[in-house]
Write a structure and sequence with these properties.
The structure holds two protein chains of two kinds.
Chain A: H1 8-19, H2 21-27, H3 35-62, E1 66-68, E2 71-73, H4 78-87, H5 106-140, H6 143-155, E3 159-163, E4 179-183, E5 186-197, E6 207-213, E7 226-231, E8 233-235, E9 241-244, E10 247-252, E11 263-268, E12 274-279, H7 285-321, E13 323-326, E14 332-334, H8 339-370, H9 374-406, H10 417-424, H11 434-447, H12 452-470, H13 474-500, H14 505-539, H15 547-563, H16 566-577, H17 587-590
Parallel strand pairs in A: 3-6
Antiparallel strand pairs in A: 1-2, 4-5, 5-11, 5-12, 6-7, 7-12, 8-9, 10-11, 13-14
Helix pairs in contact in A: 1-3, 1-8, 3-5, 5-6, 5-7, 5-8, 7-8, 7-9, 7-10, 8-9, 8-14, 8-15, 9-10, 9-11, 9-12, 9-14, 11-14, 12-13, 12-14, 13-14, 13-15, 13-16, 14-15, 14-16
Chain B: E1 2-6, E2 9-11, E3 18-19, E4 26-27, E5 33-35, H1 37-51, E6 57-64, H2 69-78, E7 82-87, H3 94-108, E8 112-116, H4 127-135, E9 139-149, E10 152-159, E11 162-169, E12 172-176, H5 188-194, E13 199-202, H6 204-207, H7 235-244
Parallel strand pairs in B: 1-6, 1-8, 6-7, 7-13, 8-12, 9-12
Antiparallel strand pairs in B: 2-5, 3-4, 9-10, 10-11
The chains are: A alpha+beta, B alpha/beta.
Chain lengths: 593, 249
Amino acid sequence: MSTYTPPLKDASFVLDQLIGLNQLCEKLQLEDINTELATVIIEEAGKLASDILAPLNSVGDEKGSSVSAGKVQETAGFADAYQQFVENGWATLTGPEEFGGQNLPNVIGTAVNELWHSSNMSFALCPMLSQGAVEALIAHGSEILKAHYLPPLISGEWTGTMNLTEPNAGSDLAAVAAKAKPEGDHYKISGQKIFITWGDHQMTSNIVHLVLARLPNAPAGVKGISLFIVPKYCLDEQGQPAELNDVSCISLEHKMGIHGSPTCVMSFGDNDGAIGYLVGEENKGLSYMFTMMNHARQAVGLQGLSISERAYQQALQYSQERFQGSRRDGQKIAIIDHPDVRRMLMAMKAGNEAMRALAYSAAADIDHAHSGDEAAKARVELYTPIVKGWMTELAQELTSLNIQVHGGMGFIEETGAAQHYRDARILPIYEGTTGIQALDLIGRKTLLDKGMALKALHADINETLNQLTASDNKQLQALQHPLKVALESAVSAGDWILENTADDPQTMGNVSFDNLMMMGYLTGGWLLARSALLANKLITQENPYGDPFLQGKIATASFYAEHYLPRVKQHADTVLTGLSNTFALDIEQMQGV
Amino acid sequence: MKILVAVKRVIDYNAKVRVKADNSDVDLSNTKMAINPFCEIAVEEAVRLKEAGSAQEVVAVSVGPKACQEQIRAALALGADRGIQVETDDNLESLNVAKLLAQVVRDEQPDLIIMGKQAIDSDNNQTGQMLSALLNMPQGTFASEINLQEGEVQVIREIDGGLQTLGLTLPAIITTDLRLNEPRYASLPNIMKAKRKPLAVVTPETLGVELKQHSKLLKVTPPAERSAGILVSSVDELIEKLKNQAKVI
């Protein structure tokens, strides 16, 4: 079983130096909130994460949840851990004050969420889904729905779920078929939903399901979908859970990973119809989902970082304990001293730090956007598919490297390395597949504003190039060339996309994945270069990080530039071909006929 | 009832202890610092007494440079009501700390003083006892259970032969052992509240205490590194090595 140590120093470096958390909090007029407080919060959350949640991670993997008579029994130990999580107030972190939240900025929530997902992603999915339900209600719920449902959801006393997917409606939600029939002050919901994360459990006294369904006579397609709240237990006049609603979990999926997180087939309205309440207006459900999308997608991207960080820590430890080969004097060599193993570890470390820099930056831009900053708003739109798409794809490579570092033992389940790899595999799939993110990045985020947000990012990277050139540190100067090559190729690929894909959806689809990965590696490299510049400035002053850490930031950025930045040009070159042979074969030819 | 709790800033128990290159001291630069675990137990006990309605106020005191305010805040986040920092340099010897605490006690007039039995950095195990002598107050050291009664506190102490139960007249001083309780995690709302709780800063001068060091740190050396073990192929070989190489049998 692997232990977990929260990466406190890097987290506080990114928040304090790269994000400028203190300035952000001033801008948001959050008195008393600053880096110092954030550090204390992350440290304290880290104790719960490493002492309580991390040891339950393998427990959940080995013995997931079970279902009988419509009730899901979660993994043993999860309920106590959840109780402690709630009692210590962690569910309230970013919630608004008027409903019992602590009103902390999104970026601090993100830094804390990183720890939950690293320590136990299956567990952390539960509060993550509740947070989604909270946001939907804050943005679109009526005052009465808010008053009833927000306080217990924000405190964590109840949990929330998202019921979108149906057997025939996955990426294409236009096909949603669940029905809602008006009846007095409420609706009767019926239909089946699949892949419902934490759809049922025994950890709380109620569960609040957010459900997409169609009203009678609703227009076909995406414009006829409405959003409803369906509580597991209907509320009595005091707002307390009372009668069981007509909703149950009819089976659990057998999955490749995240075994500790029950993935439910939910059945609504088997008898008389489940009582539900409309959120917002009729037929606007899908657009409501879109308002929550940046947040939800960034949250999944963050999981890519979290699980890769856990995998890295495990690989780092194992590589120091495993000895193979000996030196001339007979001394055994720990595998961490073999160059190829060290390369893999550095690839993990550099990848993780780039992801952390990106995830926190994107999260902070959501805060900036809330304060009305238009440039930040555009940047959030651009970043979100990159955070979700690139980070979860990179997580596949990094969790796989952990197995490779373990050698044969990595392939053996007892080591625990396989769990991270299996758990990570869902990430590029749920909350919009990589393919969906890649299309989003071109269609809505590049073409729609004619490349404005993209060019603003290019300009920022260019500014960093100037700073690298002007630096008195040779290591930083050396970073300039690889970043420049990367930027130039990304600019030409971006221009090509603007010119060639607007009226050609097939070409857009062909090149979208490479464009996404190109943007990810570029942005990661840029943020690490900026981190290196900031670290260099601090080295000569008194600082809370220590010079070895700061020198490490510079060296890690340099490693990234050698190892990952060349991939930008590689992906850009692919974009420029238009991948024109993608459809060169017909299906019979593909079958080898 | 008012309880005073002393908390010390020490190297985190998870952190690797390094010695400075010139052997002058432990190298604490960029090392993770934390509240001394025994002090944390003291805070927890005081907060539990408050939660049980036995105490009305818990005051956390620390002696040290400004950075030790972090540990006072940590105590406030666990539930202490207010803090006092006695601003001094690092590395005061126990007697000086005891003298400063004694003056704080005279000013604050608590009914009970709870502190760790020792700090994990210097392992002196003497400040509580010295404080007791300076104030002429009864002491119950190495407490594993505390029961408050009218005007008196019963302390169950861990001693070599087992457990000893003492009755102390209040005000009294108690030092905590490991098994007294298991400290809680600070909750998020309490971390937020801790920021707004009062924290007063005093100095040895304002307390009217003159500090005088009686001992000098001469040298710190790391423990000798253990050399690698060897595998023996038989019991006979083991006995031979124990006899002739290790010379222990």
